[in-house]
Write a structure and sequence with these properties.
heterodimer, A: about 500 residues, mainly alpha, Sodium/glucose cotransporter, 24 helices, about 75% helix, globular, B: about 70 residues, elongated
Chain lengths: ~500, ~70
Amino acid sequence: MTIALTVFLVLFLFVTILGFWASRWRPANLGLLSEWGLGGRRFGGVITWFLLGGDLYTAYTFIAVPALVFGQGALGFFALPYTITMYPVMFLVMPKLWTIANRNGYVTAADFVHQRFDCRLLGVLVAITGILATMPYIALQLIGMQVVLAGLGMGGQGQWTDLPLIAAFAILAAYTYTGGLRAPAVIAVIKDVLIYATVLAAVLYIPEKLGGWSGIFAHVPSDKLLFSKPLTHNTGMDTGYVTLALGSALALILYPHAITGILGAQSPGVVRRNAIFLPAYSLILGLLALLGYMAYVAHVGNMPQFRAGFKEYGPSFAVPALFLRFFPHWFVGFAFAAIAIGALVPAAIMSIAAANLFTRNIYKAYLDPHVSDGKEAKIAKLTSLVVKFGALVFVLGVPEKYAIELQLLGGIWIIQTLPAIVLGLYTRWLHRYALVLGWVAGMATGTAMAASASFKSVIYPLPIAGYTIPAYAALYALAVNLAVTSVLTGILRALRVQAGQDRTLAA
Amino acid sequence: MASTRPKWVYLLLIVPFLGTAWVPLYDRLSPTLFGFPFFYWYQLAWVPGSVLLTGLVYLLTEPRRVVPRSGS
Protein backbone atom coordinates (compact mmCIF):
# COMPACT_ATOMS: atom_id res chain seq x y z
CA MET A 1 0.00 0.00 0.00
CA THR A 2 2.98 2.32 0.24
CA ILE A 3 2.80 2.93 -3.53
CA ALA A 4 -0.88 3.85 -3.31
CA LEU A 5 -0.21 6.13 -0.38
CA THR A 6 2.70 7.82 -2.14
CA VAL A 7 0.66 8.55 -5.28
CA PHE A 8 -2.16 9.81 -3.08
CA LEU A 9 0.09 12.14 -1.11
CA VAL A 10 1.87 13.50 -4.19
CA LEU A 11 -1.44 14.43 -5.82
CA PHE A 12 -2.73 15.90 -2.59
CA LEU A 13 0.41 17.99 -2.20
CA PHE A 14 0.10 19.25 -5.78
CA VAL A 15 -3.48 20.36 -5.14
CA THR A 16 -2.45 22.06 -1.90
CA ILE A 17 0.15 24.13 -3.75
CA LEU A 18 -2.46 25.09 -6.35
CA GLY A 19 -4.89 26.01 -3.59
CA PHE A 20 -2.47 28.48 -2.07
CA TRP A 21 -1.44 29.81 -5.48
CA ALA A 22 -5.11 30.54 -6.26
CA SER A 23 -5.10 33.83 -4.34
CA ARG A 24 -2.58 35.18 -6.89
CA TRP A 25 -4.59 33.98 -9.87
CA ARG A 26 -6.33 36.88 -11.65
CA PRO A 27 -5.18 39.28 -8.93
CA ALA A 28 -7.81 41.52 -7.42
CA ASN A 29 -8.67 42.98 -4.06
CA LEU A 30 -9.58 39.89 -2.04
CA GLY A 31 -10.65 42.25 0.72
CA LEU A 32 -14.00 42.62 -1.08
CA LEU A 33 -16.75 40.07 -0.60
CA SER A 34 -17.61 39.89 -4.31
CA GLU A 35 -13.94 39.06 -5.03
CA TRP A 36 -13.41 36.58 -2.19
CA GLY A 37 -16.88 35.07 -2.21
CA LEU A 38 -17.72 35.11 -5.94
CA GLY A 39 -14.32 35.27 -7.61
CA GLY A 40 -15.19 38.76 -8.87
CA ARG A 41 -18.00 37.37 -11.05
CA ARG A 42 -15.41 36.84 -13.76
CA PHE A 43 -15.34 33.09 -14.40
CA GLY A 44 -15.76 32.22 -18.06
CA GLY A 45 -17.52 29.22 -19.55
CA VAL A 46 -14.75 26.68 -19.10
CA ILE A 47 -13.82 27.53 -15.51
CA THR A 48 -17.51 27.72 -14.55
CA TRP A 49 -18.03 24.29 -16.09
CA PHE A 50 -15.25 22.83 -13.96
CA LEU A 51 -16.34 24.76 -10.89
CA LEU A 52 -20.01 23.75 -11.10
CA GLY A 53 -19.11 20.20 -12.07
CA GLY A 54 -16.75 19.98 -9.12
CA ASP A 55 -19.39 21.58 -6.95
CA LEU A 56 -22.50 19.56 -7.83
CA TYR A 57 -20.89 16.16 -8.24
CA THR A 58 -19.32 15.79 -4.85
CA ALA A 59 -17.05 13.13 -3.35
CA TYR A 60 -20.00 11.95 -1.36
CA THR A 61 -21.99 11.55 -4.58
CA PHE A 62 -19.24 9.33 -5.94
CA ILE A 63 -19.37 7.16 -2.82
CA ALA A 64 -23.09 7.28 -2.03
CA VAL A 65 -24.70 6.78 -5.45
CA PRO A 66 -22.87 3.49 -6.19
CA ALA A 67 -23.42 2.53 -2.53
CA LEU A 68 -27.17 2.97 -3.02
CA VAL A 69 -27.09 0.87 -6.20
CA PHE A 70 -24.94 -1.73 -4.40
CA GLY A 71 -27.36 -1.92 -1.50
CA GLN A 72 -30.76 -1.21 -3.04
CA GLY A 73 -30.41 -1.54 -6.79
CA ALA A 74 -32.56 0.46 -9.24
CA LEU A 75 -33.44 3.21 -6.76
CA GLY A 76 -29.85 4.45 -6.82
CA PHE A 77 -30.22 5.25 -10.51
CA PHE A 78 -32.57 8.15 -9.64
CA ALA A 79 -29.43 10.27 -9.92
CA LEU A 80 -29.94 10.10 -13.66
CA PRO A 81 -33.49 11.46 -14.12
CA TYR A 82 -32.52 13.89 -11.36
CA THR A 83 -29.71 15.51 -13.29
CA ILE A 84 -31.61 15.23 -16.59
CA THR A 85 -34.39 17.31 -15.04
CA MET A 86 -32.13 19.75 -13.24
CA TYR A 87 -30.22 21.35 -16.11
CA PRO A 88 -33.23 22.55 -18.09
CA VAL A 89 -34.51 24.18 -14.88
CA MET A 90 -31.12 25.77 -14.31
CA PHE A 91 -31.07 26.95 -17.93
CA LEU A 92 -34.41 28.67 -17.49
CA VAL A 93 -34.18 30.15 -14.01
CA MET A 94 -30.58 30.90 -13.14
CA PRO A 95 -29.62 33.40 -15.87
CA LYS A 96 -32.46 35.57 -14.53
CA LEU A 97 -31.12 35.40 -10.98
CA TRP A 98 -27.60 36.09 -12.27
CA THR A 99 -28.75 39.22 -14.13
CA ILE A 100 -30.60 40.72 -11.15
CA ALA A 101 -27.78 39.81 -8.75
CA ASN A 102 -25.15 41.33 -11.01
CA ARG A 103 -27.08 44.58 -11.52
CA ASN A 104 -27.60 45.09 -7.80
CA GLY A 105 -24.39 43.61 -6.41
CA TYR A 106 -26.11 40.71 -4.66
CA VAL A 107 -23.86 37.93 -3.39
CA THR A 108 -26.56 35.50 -2.22
CA ALA A 109 -30.08 34.44 -3.18
CA ALA A 110 -31.20 35.76 0.20
CA ASP A 111 -29.98 39.26 -0.85
CA PHE A 112 -32.36 39.04 -3.79
CA VAL A 113 -35.31 37.80 -1.70
CA HIS A 114 -34.75 40.52 0.93
CA GLN A 115 -34.80 43.29 -1.68
CA ARG A 116 -37.47 41.87 -3.97
CA PHE A 117 -40.03 41.51 -1.20
CA ASP A 118 -38.72 44.33 0.97
CA CYS A 119 -38.55 41.85 3.85
CA ARG A 120 -35.43 41.37 5.93
CA LEU A 121 -37.06 38.47 7.79
CA LEU A 122 -37.67 36.54 4.58
CA GLY A 123 -34.04 37.13 3.60
CA VAL A 124 -32.78 35.78 6.90
CA LEU A 125 -35.08 32.74 6.69
CA VAL A 126 -33.69 31.91 3.25
CA ALA A 127 -30.17 32.36 4.64
CA ILE A 128 -30.77 30.16 7.69
CA THR A 129 -32.35 27.44 5.54
CA GLY A 130 -29.33 27.55 3.27
CA ILE A 131 -26.84 27.32 6.12
CA LEU A 132 -28.76 24.50 7.84
CA ALA A 133 -28.97 22.50 4.63
CA THR A 134 -25.31 23.09 3.78
CA MET A 135 -23.69 22.11 7.08
CA PRO A 136 -24.50 18.38 6.95
CA TYR A 137 -23.59 18.41 3.24
CA ILE A 138 -20.08 19.57 4.19
CA ALA A 139 -19.98 16.87 6.87
CA LEU A 140 -20.76 14.26 4.22
CA GLN A 141 -17.77 15.43 2.16
CA LEU A 142 -15.62 14.71 5.19
CA ILE A 143 -17.17 11.27 5.49
CA GLY A 144 -16.38 10.65 1.81
CA MET A 145 -12.78 11.54 2.57
CA GLN A 146 -12.77 9.36 5.69
CA VAL A 147 -13.88 6.35 3.65
CA VAL A 148 -11.01 6.60 1.17
CA LEU A 149 -8.51 7.31 3.93
CA ALA A 150 -9.72 4.11 5.60
CA GLY A 151 -9.24 2.34 2.27
CA LEU A 152 -5.62 3.50 2.33
CA GLY A 153 -5.20 1.92 5.76
CA MET A 154 -5.56 5.18 7.67
CA GLY A 155 -8.75 4.26 9.46
CA GLY A 156 -9.94 2.02 12.20
CA GLN A 157 -9.43 2.73 15.87
CA GLY A 158 -6.76 4.54 17.79
CA GLN A 159 -5.79 7.96 18.97
CA TRP A 160 -4.22 9.25 15.76
CA THR A 161 -6.65 7.87 13.19
CA ASP A 162 -8.44 11.18 12.73
CA LEU A 163 -5.24 13.12 12.24
CA PRO A 164 -5.00 12.80 8.40
CA LEU A 165 -8.58 14.05 8.06
CA ILE A 166 -7.98 16.96 10.41
CA ALA A 167 -4.77 17.86 8.57
CA ALA A 168 -6.48 17.74 5.14
CA PHE A 169 -9.29 19.94 6.37
CA ALA A 170 -7.00 22.43 8.08
CA ILE A 171 -5.10 22.86 4.80
CA LEU A 172 -8.37 23.32 2.93
CA ALA A 173 -9.56 25.88 5.46
CA ALA A 174 -6.30 27.83 5.09
CA TYR A 175 -6.36 28.22 1.32
CA THR A 176 -10.09 28.86 1.20
CA TYR A 177 -9.44 31.66 3.70
CA THR A 178 -6.76 33.23 1.52
CA GLY A 179 -8.10 32.53 -1.98
CA GLY A 180 -11.89 32.42 -1.57
CA LEU A 181 -13.82 31.02 -4.53
CA ARG A 182 -10.65 31.13 -6.66
CA ALA A 183 -9.23 28.17 -4.69
CA PRO A 184 -11.93 25.61 -5.53
CA ALA A 185 -12.13 26.98 -9.09
CA VAL A 186 -8.46 26.15 -9.68
CA ILE A 187 -8.57 22.80 -7.88
CA ALA A 188 -11.80 21.77 -9.64
CA VAL A 189 -9.89 21.48 -12.94
CA ILE A 190 -7.50 18.91 -11.44
CA LYS A 191 -10.29 17.16 -9.58
CA ASP A 192 -12.33 16.66 -12.73
CA VAL A 193 -9.41 15.35 -14.74
CA LEU A 194 -8.67 12.81 -11.99
CA ILE A 195 -12.33 11.81 -11.64
CA TYR A 196 -12.88 11.40 -15.38
CA ALA A 197 -9.74 9.27 -15.65
CA THR A 198 -10.80 7.14 -12.68
CA VAL A 199 -14.35 6.53 -13.86
CA LEU A 200 -13.30 5.82 -17.44
CA ALA A 201 -10.65 3.38 -16.22
CA ALA A 202 -13.19 1.70 -13.97
CA VAL A 203 -15.91 1.28 -16.61
CA LEU A 204 -13.47 0.16 -19.30
CA TYR A 205 -11.26 -2.12 -17.18
CA ILE A 206 -13.36 -3.72 -14.45
CA PRO A 207 -16.33 -5.08 -16.51
CA GLU A 208 -13.88 -7.15 -18.53
CA LYS A 209 -12.85 -8.95 -15.32
CA LEU A 210 -16.48 -9.66 -14.51
CA GLY A 211 -17.64 -11.06 -17.83
CA GLY A 212 -18.53 -7.79 -19.56
CA TRP A 213 -21.58 -5.60 -19.00
CA SER A 214 -24.01 -8.37 -19.91
CA GLY A 215 -22.19 -10.65 -17.45
CA ILE A 216 -22.52 -8.06 -14.68
CA PHE A 217 -26.22 -7.43 -15.26
CA ALA A 218 -26.89 -11.18 -15.61
CA HIS A 219 -25.55 -11.76 -12.11
CA VAL A 220 -27.76 -9.15 -10.47
CA PRO A 221 -31.21 -10.48 -9.50
CA SER A 222 -33.97 -8.82 -11.51
CA ASP A 223 -35.81 -7.62 -8.39
CA LYS A 224 -32.72 -5.49 -7.77
CA LEU A 225 -32.35 -4.33 -11.38
CA LEU A 226 -35.97 -3.19 -11.54
CA PHE A 227 -38.62 -2.02 -9.12
CA SER A 228 -40.98 -4.57 -7.66
CA LYS A 229 -44.45 -4.12 -9.09
CA PRO A 230 -46.63 -1.82 -6.99
CA LEU A 231 -49.22 -3.32 -4.68
CA THR A 232 -52.91 -2.71 -5.32
CA HIS A 233 -54.02 0.77 -4.33
CA ASN A 234 -50.38 1.79 -3.97
CA THR A 235 -48.37 3.54 -6.67
CA GLY A 236 -45.08 2.32 -5.14
CA MET A 237 -41.85 3.44 -6.77
CA ASP A 238 -43.71 4.59 -9.88
CA THR A 239 -44.31 7.80 -7.96
CA GLY A 240 -41.49 7.46 -5.42
CA TYR A 241 -38.72 7.36 -8.03
CA VAL A 242 -39.89 10.21 -10.23
CA THR A 243 -40.73 12.55 -7.34
CA LEU A 244 -37.35 11.86 -5.76
CA ALA A 245 -35.70 12.82 -9.04
CA LEU A 246 -37.80 15.96 -9.57
CA GLY A 247 -37.57 17.12 -5.96
CA SER A 248 -33.81 16.57 -5.82
CA ALA A 249 -33.41 18.54 -9.05
CA LEU A 250 -35.38 21.51 -7.72
CA ALA A 251 -33.54 21.32 -4.40
CA LEU A 252 -30.06 21.18 -5.89
CA ILE A 253 -30.30 24.46 -7.81
CA LEU A 254 -31.46 26.18 -4.61
CA TYR A 255 -28.51 25.01 -2.53
CA PRO A 256 -26.22 27.93 -1.65
CA HIS A 257 -23.16 26.22 -3.15
CA ALA A 258 -24.92 25.85 -6.51
CA ILE A 259 -26.04 29.49 -6.50
CA THR A 260 -22.57 30.69 -5.47
CA GLY A 261 -21.02 28.79 -8.38
CA ILE A 262 -23.58 30.28 -10.76
CA LEU A 263 -23.20 33.86 -9.52
CA GLY A 264 -19.41 33.55 -10.01
CA ALA A 265 -19.95 33.28 -13.80
CA GLN A 266 -19.12 36.30 -15.93
CA SER A 267 -22.41 36.49 -17.88
CA PRO A 268 -25.88 34.93 -18.12
CA GLY A 269 -24.74 33.34 -21.39
CA VAL A 270 -22.06 31.44 -19.47
CA VAL A 271 -24.76 30.07 -17.16
CA ARG A 272 -26.97 29.06 -20.09
CA ARG A 273 -24.15 27.35 -21.97
CA ASN A 274 -23.12 25.53 -18.82
CA ALA A 275 -26.61 24.15 -18.39
CA ILE A 276 -26.14 22.62 -21.85
CA PHE A 277 -22.69 21.15 -21.30
CA LEU A 278 -22.79 20.13 -17.62
CA PRO A 279 -24.75 16.93 -18.37
CA ALA A 280 -21.43 15.45 -19.52
CA TYR A 281 -21.01 14.79 -15.81
CA SER A 282 -24.38 13.04 -15.67
CA LEU A 283 -23.11 10.46 -18.11
CA ILE A 284 -20.14 9.87 -15.83
CA LEU A 285 -22.46 9.70 -12.84
CA GLY A 286 -24.67 7.14 -14.55
CA LEU A 287 -21.70 4.90 -15.31
CA LEU A 288 -20.39 5.45 -11.82
CA ALA A 289 -23.70 4.33 -10.33
CA LEU A 290 -23.16 1.03 -12.08
CA LEU A 291 -19.95 0.52 -10.12
CA GLY A 292 -22.38 -0.48 -7.38
CA TYR A 293 -23.42 -3.50 -9.44
CA MET A 294 -19.80 -4.34 -10.21
CA ALA A 295 -19.07 -4.35 -6.48
CA TYR A 296 -22.16 -6.50 -5.93
CA VAL A 297 -21.21 -9.04 -8.60
CA ALA A 298 -17.58 -9.13 -7.42
CA HIS A 299 -18.83 -10.04 -3.91
CA VAL A 300 -16.50 -7.52 -2.26
CA GLY A 301 -18.97 -7.43 0.64
CA ASN A 302 -17.99 -10.97 1.64
CA MET A 303 -14.23 -10.67 1.31
CA PRO A 304 -12.34 -10.93 4.60
CA GLN A 305 -9.91 -8.11 3.74
CA PHE A 306 -12.81 -5.65 3.40
CA ARG A 307 -14.81 -6.82 6.41
CA ALA A 308 -13.56 -4.04 8.69
CA GLY A 309 -14.31 -1.38 6.06
CA PHE A 310 -17.87 -2.53 5.48
CA LYS A 311 -18.45 -2.88 9.21
CA GLU A 312 -17.37 0.71 9.75
CA TYR A 313 -18.87 2.41 6.68
CA GLY A 314 -21.56 0.05 5.38
CA PRO A 315 -22.33 0.10 1.64
CA SER A 316 -20.26 3.31 1.34
CA PHE A 317 -17.21 1.08 1.34
CA ALA A 318 -18.35 -0.65 -1.89
CA VAL A 319 -16.46 1.65 -4.28
CA PRO A 320 -13.18 1.75 -2.31
CA ALA A 321 -13.35 -2.05 -1.94
CA LEU A 322 -13.99 -2.47 -5.67
CA PHE A 323 -10.97 -0.31 -6.55
CA LEU A 324 -8.76 -2.13 -4.05
CA ARG A 325 -9.89 -5.45 -5.47
CA PHE A 326 -9.21 -4.72 -9.14
CA PHE A 327 -6.87 -1.76 -9.60
CA PRO A 328 -3.07 -1.92 -9.34
CA HIS A 329 -1.75 -0.17 -6.23
CA TRP A 330 -0.57 2.98 -7.93
CA PHE A 331 -3.96 3.50 -9.54
CA VAL A 332 -5.75 2.90 -6.23
CA GLY A 333 -3.75 5.88 -4.94
CA PHE A 334 -4.77 7.89 -8.01
CA ALA A 335 -8.46 6.98 -7.71
CA PHE A 336 -8.62 7.63 -3.98
CA ALA A 337 -6.89 10.97 -4.46
CA ALA A 338 -9.58 11.79 -7.05
CA ILE A 339 -12.31 11.14 -4.49
CA ALA A 340 -10.55 12.97 -1.66
CA ILE A 341 -9.83 16.00 -3.85
CA GLY A 342 -13.41 15.66 -5.03
CA ALA A 343 -14.40 16.32 -1.42
CA LEU A 344 -12.27 19.46 -1.14
CA VAL A 345 -13.87 21.39 -3.99
CA PRO A 346 -17.50 21.20 -2.84
CA ALA A 347 -16.51 21.56 0.83
CA ALA A 348 -14.71 24.79 -0.04
CA ILE A 349 -17.58 26.19 -2.12
CA MET A 350 -20.17 25.16 0.47
CA SER A 351 -18.30 26.86 3.29
CA ILE A 352 -17.87 30.00 1.17
CA ALA A 353 -21.59 29.97 0.31
CA ALA A 354 -22.58 29.56 3.96
CA ALA A 355 -20.15 32.33 4.92
CA ASN A 356 -21.63 34.66 2.29
CA LEU A 357 -25.13 34.01 3.64
CA PHE A 358 -24.15 34.60 7.24
CA THR A 359 -22.24 37.77 6.42
CA ARG A 360 -24.78 39.37 4.12
CA ASN A 361 -28.12 38.23 5.45
CA ILE A 362 -27.54 37.79 9.18
CA TYR A 363 -24.51 39.90 10.16
CA LYS A 364 -25.00 42.84 7.81
CA ALA A 365 -28.81 42.68 7.74
CA TYR A 366 -29.27 42.55 11.51
CA LEU A 367 -26.09 43.23 13.46
CA ASP A 368 -24.12 45.85 11.58
CA PRO A 369 -25.93 47.41 8.58
CA HIS A 370 -23.15 49.96 7.98
CA VAL A 371 -20.29 47.47 7.97
CA SER A 372 -17.38 48.54 5.76
CA ASP A 373 -16.55 46.50 2.63
CA GLY A 374 -13.28 45.37 4.15
CA LYS A 375 -14.82 44.21 7.38
CA GLU A 376 -17.59 42.44 5.49
CA ALA A 377 -15.05 40.29 3.62
CA LYS A 378 -13.14 39.67 6.87
CA ILE A 379 -16.30 38.40 8.60
CA ALA A 380 -17.01 36.07 5.67
CA LYS A 381 -13.48 34.64 5.76
CA LEU A 382 -13.72 33.97 9.48
CA THR A 383 -17.19 32.45 9.09
CA SER A 384 -15.86 30.03 6.47
CA LEU A 385 -13.36 28.79 9.08
CA VAL A 386 -16.08 28.39 11.71
CA VAL A 387 -18.32 26.49 9.27
CA LYS A 388 -15.56 24.03 8.36
CA PHE A 389 -14.51 23.58 11.96
CA GLY A 390 -18.15 22.90 12.90
CA ALA A 391 -18.50 20.26 10.21
CA LEU A 392 -15.26 18.60 11.32
CA VAL A 393 -16.33 18.46 14.97
CA PHE A 394 -19.68 17.06 13.87
CA VAL A 395 -18.12 14.27 11.83
CA LEU A 396 -15.62 13.32 14.52
CA GLY A 397 -18.06 13.53 17.39
CA VAL A 398 -21.37 12.28 16.04
CA PRO A 399 -22.21 8.92 14.39
CA GLU A 400 -22.19 9.02 10.59
CA LYS A 401 -25.88 8.20 10.27
CA TYR A 402 -26.88 11.55 11.78
CA ALA A 403 -24.99 13.44 9.09
CA ILE A 404 -26.78 11.39 6.44
CA GLU A 405 -30.18 11.90 8.05
CA LEU A 406 -29.60 15.63 8.41
CA GLN A 407 -28.54 15.87 4.79
CA LEU A 408 -31.76 14.14 3.71
CA LEU A 409 -33.65 16.62 5.85
CA GLY A 410 -31.60 19.43 4.30
CA GLY A 411 -33.00 18.62 0.85
CA ILE A 412 -36.54 18.85 2.23
CA TRP A 413 -35.74 22.17 3.88
CA ILE A 414 -33.92 23.91 1.03
CA ILE A 415 -36.77 23.32 -1.43
CA GLN A 416 -38.97 25.47 0.85
CA THR A 417 -37.07 28.51 -0.44
CA LEU A 418 -38.35 27.86 -3.98
CA PRO A 419 -41.42 30.12 -3.78
CA ALA A 420 -39.37 33.12 -2.62
CA ILE A 421 -36.37 32.59 -4.91
CA VAL A 422 -37.71 31.00 -8.11
CA LEU A 423 -41.28 32.30 -8.19
CA GLY A 424 -39.92 35.61 -6.92
CA LEU A 425 -37.94 35.91 -10.15
CA TYR A 426 -41.12 35.74 -12.20
CA THR A 427 -43.81 37.47 -10.17
CA ARG A 428 -44.26 40.17 -7.55
CA TRP A 429 -47.74 38.93 -6.72
CA LEU A 430 -46.73 36.79 -3.73
CA HIS A 431 -47.01 38.67 -0.45
CA ARG A 432 -43.98 38.79 1.85
CA TYR A 433 -45.82 37.62 4.97
CA ALA A 434 -47.56 34.86 3.03
CA LEU A 435 -44.11 33.65 1.90
CA VAL A 436 -42.89 33.66 5.49
CA LEU A 437 -45.85 31.60 6.70
CA GLY A 438 -45.70 29.31 3.67
CA TRP A 439 -42.06 28.64 4.54
CA VAL A 440 -43.04 27.82 8.14
CA ALA A 441 -45.78 25.45 6.95
CA GLY A 442 -43.47 23.73 4.44
CA MET A 443 -40.62 23.30 6.92
CA ALA A 444 -42.98 21.88 9.54
CA THR A 445 -44.75 19.50 7.14
CA GLY A 446 -41.53 18.22 5.60
CA THR A 447 -39.80 17.70 8.94
CA ALA A 448 -42.86 15.92 10.34
CA MET A 449 -43.03 13.62 7.30
CA ALA A 450 -39.34 12.69 7.66
CA ALA A 451 -39.78 12.23 11.41
CA SER A 452 -42.65 9.81 10.83
CA ALA A 453 -40.13 7.56 9.06
CA SER A 454 -37.62 8.10 11.90
CA PHE A 455 -35.53 10.17 9.41
CA LYS A 456 -34.55 6.95 7.62
CA SER A 457 -36.50 7.59 4.43
CA VAL A 458 -37.60 10.70 2.58
CA ILE A 459 -40.31 8.87 0.63
CA TYR A 460 -43.59 9.58 2.38
CA PRO A 461 -46.57 7.26 1.71
CA LEU A 462 -49.48 9.70 1.55
CA PRO A 463 -52.95 8.12 1.63
CA ILE A 464 -55.30 9.87 -0.83
CA ALA A 465 -58.84 8.61 -1.51
CA GLY A 466 -58.13 4.96 -0.78
CA TYR A 467 -54.77 5.01 -2.57
CA THR A 468 -51.32 5.20 -1.07
CA ILE A 469 -49.05 7.48 -3.06
CA PRO A 470 -45.43 7.31 -1.91
CA ALA A 471 -43.53 10.43 -2.97
CA TYR A 472 -40.55 12.55 -1.97
CA ALA A 473 -41.57 14.39 1.21
CA ALA A 474 -39.88 17.55 -0.09
CA LEU A 475 -42.48 17.82 -2.86
CA TYR A 476 -45.42 17.20 -0.54
CA ALA A 477 -44.07 19.84 1.82
CA LEU A 478 -43.52 22.22 -1.09
CA ALA A 479 -47.15 21.72 -2.14
CA VAL A 480 -48.28 22.70 1.37
CA ASN A 481 -45.93 25.68 1.27
CA LEU A 482 -47.29 26.85 -2.12
CA ALA A 483 -50.90 26.39 -1.03
CA VAL A 484 -50.41 28.40 2.17
CA THR A 485 -48.44 31.08 0.32
CA SER A 486 -51.07 31.55 -2.40
CA VAL A 487 -54.13 31.52 -0.14
CA LEU A 488 -52.56 33.94 2.34
CA THR A 489 -51.36 36.20 -0.48
CA GLY A 490 -54.96 36.42 -1.68
CA ILE A 491 -56.19 37.27 1.81
CA LEU A 492 -53.41 39.77 2.61
CA ARG A 493 -53.90 41.51 -0.72
CA ALA A 494 -57.67 41.68 -0.15
CA LEU A 495 -57.01 43.21 3.27
CA ARG A 496 -54.55 45.65 1.63
CA VAL A 497 -51.71 44.77 3.98
CA GLN A 498 -48.56 46.63 2.85
CA ALA A 499 -46.65 44.44 0.39
CA GLY A 500 -43.41 46.43 0.43
CA GLN A 501 -41.36 48.03 -2.33
CA ASP A 502 -39.47 45.96 -4.91
CA ARG A 503 -35.92 47.32 -4.73
CA THR A 504 -34.38 45.02 -7.29
CA LEU A 505 -35.16 47.45 -10.09
CA ALA A 506 -33.22 50.36 -8.60
CA ALA A 507 -29.48 51.00 -9.01
CA MET B 1 -33.06 41.50 -24.71
CA ALA B 2 -36.43 40.66 -26.25
CA SER B 3 -36.26 37.61 -28.45
CA THR B 4 -38.20 37.42 -31.66
CA ARG B 5 -38.94 33.75 -30.99
CA PRO B 6 -42.19 32.66 -29.42
CA LYS B 7 -42.16 31.57 -25.79
CA TRP B 8 -43.39 28.06 -26.61
CA VAL B 9 -39.80 27.09 -27.46
CA TYR B 10 -39.16 26.91 -23.72
CA LEU B 11 -41.67 24.06 -23.47
CA LEU B 12 -39.00 21.84 -25.03
CA LEU B 13 -37.16 22.06 -21.69
CA ILE B 14 -39.84 19.99 -19.99
CA VAL B 15 -39.46 17.09 -22.46
CA PRO B 16 -36.48 15.37 -20.70
CA PHE B 17 -38.48 15.32 -17.47
CA LEU B 18 -41.55 13.92 -19.23
CA GLY B 19 -39.38 11.28 -20.87
CA THR B 20 -38.42 9.83 -17.49
CA ALA B 21 -41.58 10.74 -15.56
CA TRP B 22 -43.62 7.62 -16.36
CA VAL B 23 -41.63 4.88 -14.63
CA PRO B 24 -43.70 1.87 -15.90
CA LEU B 25 -42.59 2.88 -19.41
CA TYR B 26 -38.98 1.90 -18.78
CA ASP B 27 -39.08 -0.32 -15.68
CA ARG B 28 -38.23 -3.39 -17.79
CA LEU B 29 -35.19 -5.49 -18.77
CA SER B 30 -35.62 -5.84 -22.53
CA PRO B 31 -34.66 -4.80 -25.09
CA THR B 32 -31.05 -4.73 -23.92
CA LEU B 33 -28.36 -2.64 -25.58
CA PHE B 34 -24.64 -3.52 -25.28
CA GLY B 35 -25.62 -5.74 -22.36
CA PHE B 36 -27.45 -2.92 -20.56
CA PRO B 37 -31.05 -3.66 -19.53
CA PHE B 38 -33.62 -1.21 -20.95
CA PHE B 39 -34.11 0.57 -17.60
CA TYR B 40 -30.45 1.62 -17.64
CA TRP B 41 -29.73 2.51 -21.24
CA TYR B 42 -33.04 4.29 -21.68
CA GLN B 43 -32.28 6.69 -18.87
CA LEU B 44 -28.65 7.10 -19.96
CA ALA B 45 -29.90 7.94 -23.46
CA TRP B 46 -31.86 10.88 -22.05
CA VAL B 47 -28.59 12.58 -21.09
CA PRO B 48 -27.62 13.38 -24.71
CA GLY B 49 -31.33 13.89 -25.38
CA SER B 50 -31.46 16.57 -22.74
CA VAL B 51 -28.28 18.19 -24.08
CA LEU B 52 -29.72 18.38 -27.60
CA LEU B 53 -33.03 19.84 -26.47
CA THR B 54 -31.44 22.42 -24.16
CA GLY B 55 -28.96 23.28 -26.90
CA LEU B 56 -31.80 23.75 -29.37
CA VAL B 57 -33.65 26.08 -27.02
CA TYR B 58 -30.42 28.01 -26.55
CA LEU B 59 -29.92 28.45 -30.28
CA LEU B 60 -33.53 29.51 -30.76
CA THR B 61 -33.59 32.01 -27.92
CA GLU B 62 -30.08 33.46 -27.53
CA PRO B 63 -30.62 37.13 -28.38
CA ARG B 64 -27.32 37.65 -30.18
CA ARG B 65 -27.73 34.54 -32.27
CA VAL B 66 -31.09 35.34 -33.79
CA VAL B 67 -30.57 35.40 -37.52
CA PRO B 68 -31.64 38.76 -39.01
CA ARG B 69 -34.73 38.37 -41.08
CA SER B 70 -34.44 39.06 -44.74
CA GLY B 71 -36.80 41.44 -46.49
CA SER B 72 -38.97 43.78 -44.50
